[in-house]
Specification:
The complex is a heterodimer of chains A (246) and B (265). The relative contact order of chain A is 0.12. Chain A is mainly alpha-helical and 246 residues long. In chain A, helix 4 crosses helix 5, helix 5 packs parallel to helix 8 and helix 6 runs parallel beside helix 10. Chain A has ten helices and no strands. Chain A is globular. With 265 residues, chain B is an all-alpha fold. Chain B folds into two domains: 72 residues, no CATH class; 187 residues, no CATH class. Chain B is 81% helix and 0% strand. Chain B contains eleven helices and no strands. In chain B, helix 5 packs across helix 6 and helix 6 packs parallel to helix 9. Chain B is flat and about 80 Å long. The chains are: A mainly alpha (246), B mainly alpha (265). At the A-B interface, helix 1, helix 2, helix 3, helix 4 and helix 6 of A face helix 1, helix 2, helix 4, helix 5 and helix 7 of B.
Chain lengths: 246, 265
């Protein structure tokens, strides 16, 4: 138990470090610029406490359970195994990690709340949950697909810049057709999808693949999966918006 | 207190469903496809219970603290009384100077402390043979995010369409891609997604939505989102610029050295 406590101290410090700059900037503004009290300070402090403990537990859990398991699997599929299983694994890895991504859960709920306030959807809890789930499913599907395409790129040696720039072009072609209300969320979803869970597991897959295939450079070919995973969600969320808003 | 407990239980139940797909995927491939058993299965289950309880607490805390905080800051910074005292005034974009400064500082400080970025930066230092310093790269990315968020706040204040700003940034990325050192390109593209952490994303969303709902003439649905997009695109620009600058400086240094050794001979 003592060892577990020690192992827990590291993510706890990490969570504190994540939060410290935010708290410092806000404290400076409150004290020097705004000079106003924060309403509900006690509720906010207990919320901060939940965030720190929660983030630390989450990261510690990832480190003891999901990451060793996922990284080992990623490496063994990269080294042997059939192409079909590898592609299926890539898709499911992208999909599964995105559905569990905390920032995406929070943003999707917020987007549903705002959509309900703007009377784009019904104000019932069911309608909001539906909208949030739809958003998250579109993002998760697109990340799954992105990882699959990214793995194919590593296997076949397609050039990254052309694909990324082609993706940008597609996004800009699709934007005028998308409803105004979805564009902001769509563009944001690219950055939201790739954080705590997705990045380490996906990077392990990419680097594992690139280092096990001869003629591939882990640096040039191993990275770039995240870039796909930040790009495709923008397209898919705009398509989702076209589907439900019009 | 009772409603807090119900909220907690509800969130825990939702979280269980959220984490299920990745757990099922890993177990399926481990047992059915690879046909291997998992070492330390007890540890794995303990870790999974940490993941679920941690995610639950985090999401509950987010709604109690981070979202209201971003919203409060946005409201207080755009309060007419704070901006001009009690005098009547028409709103102009430069009246919101504190908002841009706040966005800049939040972007800069959170990015500099981002663990994922620290890892990426030290990797970049290794592959570039020291031409790119890890700390220099972190400063470059942090400045990219900071400038991105500040410009994003400016867009919310002035109400321009998001895609116009992003198109310009993309065009700059395309132009830079042709000139940047080849080694850095995948890293630079990845850095856009890596920089926005789990704490930063909700705070930026709350800030944007708060700004859009307090500034006259803005709608949260149309103008409120987009800050995260800015924070994801601008680091690509700043990393590519930094790598190019580092390369040019290194070459200049090298030719200077050659010149020196030639003149010594």
């Amino acid at each position: 138990m003592h060892k577990e406590l020690k192992a827990f101290a590291l993510p706890l410090l990490g969570a504190l470090r994540d939060l410290a700059p935010v708290v410092a900037v806000i404290a400076v503004f409150q004290l020097l610029v705004l000079q106003q009290p924060i309403p509900n300070l006690s509720a906010m402090l207990s919320g901060f406490f939940c965030v720190i403990i929660g983030l630390a537990l989450f990261v510690q859990g990832l480190n003891t359970a999901l990451f060793p398991l996922g990284e080992k699997l990623a490496y063994s599929f990269a080294q042997k195994g059939s192409l079909t299983w590898l592609l299926l694994f890539s898709f499911l890895l992208g999909f599964g990690t995105t559905i569990a991504e905390p920032a995406l859960i929070a943003i999707a709920d917020k987007a549903a709340e705002i959509a309900a306030q703007s009377h784009l959807i019904d104000t019932t809890q069911a309608a909001r949950d539906n909208y949030a789930d739809g958003l998250r499913l579109s993002v998760a599907l697109s990340v799954g697909l992105a990882i699959l395409v990214g793995v194919l790129r590593i296997l076949l040696g397609w050039p990254l810049p052309f694909m990324i720039l082609g993706g940008y072009l597609l996004i800009e072609i699709l934007t005028p057709f998308a409803p105004e209300e979805i564009i902001g969320i769509a563009y944001d979803s690219g950055g939201v999808t790739t954080s705590t869970i997705t990045v380490p597991l996906v990077t392990a897959l990419g680097v594992g693949l690139a280092s096990s295939i001869s003629g591939r450079n882990p640096v040039l070919d191993g990275f770039g999966l995240i870039a796909f995973a930040s790009l495709l969600p923008i397209l898919f969320v705009m398509l989702y918006g076209i589907l439900i808003h019009s | 207190m009772n409603s807090f407990l119900i909220n907690l239980l509800q969130t825990a139940l939702d979280t269980l469903l959220d984490v299920a797909p990745i757990i099922l995927t890993l177990f399926f491939f481990q047992y059915v496809v690879l046909k291997q058993s998992i070492n330390h299965i007890g540890r794995v289950f303990m870790g999974l219970s940490f993941v679920i309880s941690g995610l639950t607490l985090f999401l509950v805390g987010l709604n109690e603290a981070i979202f209201p905080l971003g919203d409060t800051m946005a409201r207080q910074l755009t309060d007419p009384e704070f901006l001009y005292g009690s005098q009547p005034h028409t709103y102009l974009w430069y009246d919101y100077g504190w908002v841009y400064l706040f966005g800049f500082l939040i972007g800069f400080s959170t990015t500099l402390a981002e663990p994922a970025l620290i890892a990426v930066a030290s990797k970049a230092q290794d592959i570039s043979g020291g031409a790119i310093s890890a700390f220099g790269l972190r400063i470059a990315v942090a400045l990219g995010v900071a400038i991105g968020v500040a410009i994003g706040c400016f867009r919310i204040v002035t109400g321009g369409p998001l895609w116009e700003y992003i198109v310009v940034a993309y065009i700059l990325v395309i132009v830079q891609t042709f000139y940047a050192p080849k080694m850095i390109i995948p890293l630079a593209y990845d850095s856009g997604g890596v920089t926005t952490s789990t704490v930063t994303v909700p705070l930026l969303a709350a800030l944007g939505l708060g700004l859009a709902s307090t500034i006259p003439g803005r709608s949260p649905m149309i103008d409120g989102f987009g800050l995260i997009a800015f924070a994801s695109v601008f680091p690509i620009l700043s990393v590519l610029s930094y790598a190019k600058t580092a390369e040019v400086l290194k070459n200049r240094q090298r030719s200077q050295d050659e010149l020196n050794s030639a003149s010594k001979e």
